[in-house]
Amino acid sequence: MSFGKEPAPNGNEPHEAGTEVYAVHGADPEVQAYGMAKYSRSALSMRESLAEINEQKAERFLNTFYFQYGHRSIADLAHIAFAIERLSILAATVVVDEPRWDGQERSTRYQDFQKSGYYMPDFGGDDGACTLYRDTVDHLFAEYRHFSEAMFQYLRERTPKPAEMKQEAYERTLRARAFDISRYLLPLATNTSLGQIVSARTLENQVSRLLSHTHAEVRRLGELLRRAAQEPAYNVGEAQMRELLERIGREAPQAREEAARTLQREVRVAPTLMKYAEPNAYDIETRRDLTAAASELLAGMTIQDAPTVDLLEDDPLEIELAATLLYQYSRHPYRQIRDLVAAMPEPQRREIIDLGLRHRGRHDEVVRAFCAGQHFRFDILMDIGGFRDMHRHRRCVQIVQDYTTAHGYEEPVEIADAGLGERYQTAMERARATGAKLARSVMSPTLSANNAERMGHPAGHTDESVQKSEYVIPLAFRKRTLFKMDFAEALYISELRTGAAGHFSYRNVAYAMYEAVAQRYPALAKYFRVTDVREPVDLLKR
To answer: What is the spatial distance between Cα 489 and Cα 517, in angstroms, rounded to a whole number?
Structure first.
């Protein structure tokens, strides 16, 4: 076997040119995508394709192959980096809720959020609601600052510094552990920032989903993302290039002018591919119908107690689909909804499934609830902060209920040990009471006072007062999510998230997932390389 040259078709002599591999840099994302797409319809090399497709030709190529032929896979080839800064944690959770998403968000462990500020909804001239909201969020930030420092001092008193460890590393590590505790006081209104790298197709789906959302802040983000894809992009090398041009300008003025013209060319990362990103009527109308159906079917039904992690049994497909469609727009455990659906006459179950599909347009992907049939389905009730960590797992299907205070909140044991339990509980109850008052302040007639008091309102409800009330909910409060996955992902999450360096919230959940699988499938338990969360943790090991 010869290496470095490809054999000729007859097997005797190598080709004149062997296999060639080269990286490509500097092409606009859309031009790059079209250059790659031409492989399917042209014998040109990548170099030749990119040279041929200038801005004008790129648009003509798009109109020919993308819109006329529906060749949307072209958009998979254009990957674009975005910075999304100063958005609320609530909105950030919605932005990153994409199965094909890559990015990073500010960490509540490694960054101090006390100076980040927070999102302020438009209360439409209701000064009382505005003042109540601001006072509550300001109080939560003040408590966050107090608990961050108090828990750092508490941990330092109980964790001696090893002689070989530098003081800076010692304090940095303990502050990160303190932030793990104090983050529970941060409200969903807290500003964060994130960076994402997505394909143009994922971006189009993301923008459409954001534009269809119930919350004004999220819809605004959809507009900003669409605009950022069509307007001139930030050029990270522009300042250095201008400095270089100034140096060579005196010796080669003509070359400088030519280079300056090239530099001034504005790059728009996806002006054509984002042309038709609009609100998705299928999503909006399906949410409306299923919200109404869930409200009617679950009216007056008390939320049953359920374990933190519930590994569900397999269901017939129609029962799973109908139960999952209702689950997203409820506050109830999946098992409770499943039992209700299983007892329904078959025509009623099929009517629920029909609600999930009747508004689907020609090019719409089905809503996520139809991603069904995974063998491992975990109904998980955990604090919002821990959910944000678990939410990063993309190889599973997540059916997410909305935020509420109806399920109570977590209280880390260190807070009580430090003598701060009563102060912590006071902050939580103040936030809960504010949320209930805000939900009532401009309450829609369709929202019962009882539900507003508990903030157990139906998820997906479009009443703006209810949406605004969610922003004051601290990360300590619990929310329910259905995680569907295969065995490999259950193994991966259990192993990764039980690591001793992880946050204690998701460590406990991941270990409960492992225990649930091990109980049902004892022969498989030995394959899980989990860390026992009951073992003491060295706080100085990262």
So the answer is: 12
The secondary structure of residue 526, as a DSSP letter, is G
Do 499 and 514 lie in one domain? The reply is yes
User: What letters, b where the CB count within 10 A reaches 16 and e where it falls short, cover 244-272?
Assistant: ebeeeeeeeeeebeebeeeeeeeebbbbb
Triad 294, 295, 297: Cα angle to 5°: 60
Is 152 inside a domain boundary? yes
292 and 337 housed in the same domain: yes
| Same structural domain, 403 and 508 | yes
Q: Identify whether residues 328 and 303 lie together within a single domain.
A: yes
Full residue range of the structural domain in which residue 50 is found: 1-77
Q: What share of the chain is helix, strand, coil (3-state, %, to 5)?
A: 50, 10, 40
**Exposure letters 517-542 (e unless 16+ CB within 10 A, then b):** bbeeeeeeeeebebbebeeeeebbee
Which of 188, 177, 238 is closest to 218 using CA atoms? 188
3-state secondary structure of 250: coil
Q: Is 312 in the same domain as 388?
A: yes
Q: 25-61 burial, b if ≥16 CB within 10 A, otherwise e?
A: eebbbbbbbbbbbbeeeeeeebeebbeebeeeebbeb
Query: What CATH number is attached to the domain comprising 393?
Result: 3.30.1360
Helices (H), 189-307: 200-211, 216-230, 238-249, 253-263, 281-297
223 within some domain: no
Overall domain count for the chain: 4
Q: Is residue 222 part of a domain?
A: no
Main-chain phi, psi angles of 66, to 5 degrees = -90, -50
Q: For the segment 130-143, what is each residue's pLDDT rounded down to a tens digit?
A: 999 999 999 999 99
pLDDT-derived band at 32, boundaries 50, 70, 90: confident
400 and 389 in a common domain? yes
Instruction: Please report, for the chain, how many H helices and E strands are present, in that order.
Output: 21, 7
> 128 and 47 share a domain?
no
CA dist 94 and 351 (Å) reads 28
- Predicted confidence (pLDDT) per residue in 382-397, tens digit: 999 999 999 999 999 9
- Residue bearing tokens 């073992």: 535
Give the end of a domain, one of 77, 103, 122.
77
Q: In what order do the strands lie in the sheet with 102-105?
A: 79-88, 191-199, 102-105
Tokens representing 56? 């004008």
Q: Are residues 400 and 367 in the same domain?
A: yes
In-domain check, residue 211: no
pLDDT value for 156: 95
Burial of 472-495, coded b for 16+ CB within 10 Å and e otherwise, reads bbbbbbbbbbbbbbeeebbbbbbb
**Taking the chain, what is the end-to-end CA distance rounded to the nearest angstrom?**
48
Centroid of chain to Cα 17: 46
| pTM confidence score | 0.86
